Each structure stands twice: as C-alpha cells, then as structure tokens.
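B., you asked whether I could sanity-check this one before it goes into the benchmark set. Here's the sequence:
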Amino acid sequence: MWGGSLSGLLSLVIGDSLYLFSINYSGGVSIAAPVSYTYIPLTVVFAVFLGEQLTITKLLASILLIPGVYLLSRSGSSRREIKGLFLGLGAALAWAAGQSMIKVADITGGLNPISIAFTRVAAAGIVLLVINYFMGNNIAGGPLEGRCVVTCPLLPYLTWALALPYSPSQWI
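And here's what the prediction gave me:
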C-alpha cells in the first residue's frame, strides 16, 4: 500500500503542482505540456530499472521527444520562462517516479488496480488538504461551507472500505 501512497505523493502532489506552476511561469500550457510530458521517456528508463524490456520502438519514441522539447526551450528567453521550463522538467521527473511506483505497488503489495488508484488519490488528497489549510486557502467555500473540510476527505476511505473486500473478477 505504501507504493500507491508514494505514487500519489510524487505524481499528484509534487508532479501536478510543478506542472501548474510551469504553466504559470513558462508562458502557457503550449510550452508547459510538451516539456512536462517528457515524463514518458523518463518512465521508460525507470521501467527498465524495474525489469521491463527496452525495445527499439520504446527507445526511438523516447528519443523523438527530445528535439521537440529543445526547440520549445529555445523560445524561452526570460528568466521567468526558463524557470517555467525547469518546473516542467521537475513535473516530468515526479510523474515518471510516481508512475514507476505504481509498478512497485503492484509487485510488493499485490493490490488490485482500484486499490492502488484509491491509495494514490487518498494520500494525495490528505496532503493537499493539509497544505491548503496551512496556506490559508479556503477550499471549503461555497454552498457546503466548512462541512466539506471534515466530510470530503473521508469519502475516499468509505469508498475504499466498501470496495476492498471485492476483487476485480467479482465486479464483472
């Protein structure tokens, strides 16, 4: 279960946050997205270290992404845009590590995909809720007011408690 939680922290908390900052600093999503999506070749590299086969197709596809990111990075001339590019690369690294932790969760914990997805989201949700609280952000505003601060984080646990006893073969 720790692999799923770590995956959520790496990819959803750190990776997504860096990606959103990258959009802000790089000049927009048209630059931040391609740079951040270099997580794909990074994930291929991490997967090889986890025992997956490196095929020529995976290698060529990964290599083809690099010139595109280089061309995009040349357009960034201000310090702000360069900072955005580095934030995007940080997001890519966090996403690749987080995706690789899904494989580790499967190998070490033998959890079904639904349980892994739950642990990723639950761990990330709790951490982001705490971060938002300490940053003074009012994420509970609106029609539910303060009640959501208590009940919303508990909903994934209720879902998990209800779904955990059932294996995917029983869902069909």
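One thing to flag: The chain has one domain: 2-166. Otherwise nothing jumped out at me.
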